[in-house]
TrEMBL record:
Coiled-coil regions, chain positions: none
PANTHER family reported for this sequence: BLL0828 PROTEIN
One Pfam family from the record: DUF559
Residue ranges of every copy of the DUF559 domain listed in the record: 1-100
Lineage: Bacteria, Pseudomonadati, Bacteroidota, Cytophagia, Cytophagales
Name by which UniProt lists this protein: DUF559 domain-containing protein
Superkingdom of the organism of origin: Bacteria
Originating organism: Solirubrum puertoriconensis
């Protein structure tokens, strides 16, 4: 996914990279048995950009379990739909900043 991110992931990365938020973000970072789309290690904040299949019941259940596991490890997980990142970028960035120290 790092070599072929979705358009939404690429748009978000352009806003997160290079300490633009004041903290460093990484993309496609391994945590336990998961790979986070984006992570800010100092803030213990994970950002996931979800494609449309994430609304299917089986995938939703998997995502909830994944979020629970990551929360158990001390992380906060924020999820955004592709369309939200593409069409409401400012709102997405504002929500991310609310979770940064």
């Amino acid at each position: 996914m790092r070599r072929q991110p979705t358009l939404a992931e690429e748009v978000l990365w352009q806003h997160l990279r290079g300490n633009q938020t004041g903290l460093r973000f990484r993309r496609q970072h391994v945590i336990d048995r998961y790979i986070a789309d984006f992570i800010c290690l100092p803030a213990k904040l994970i950002i996931e950009v979800d494609r449309c299949y994430h609304s299917e019941p089986e995938q939703t259940a998997y995502d909830e379990g994944r979020t629970f596991d990551l929360a158990t490890l001390g992380y906060t997980v924020l999820r955004f739909a592709n369309e939200e990142v593409l069409h409401q970028t400012a709102s997405v960035l504002a929500r991310i900043r609310q979770h940064l120290p």
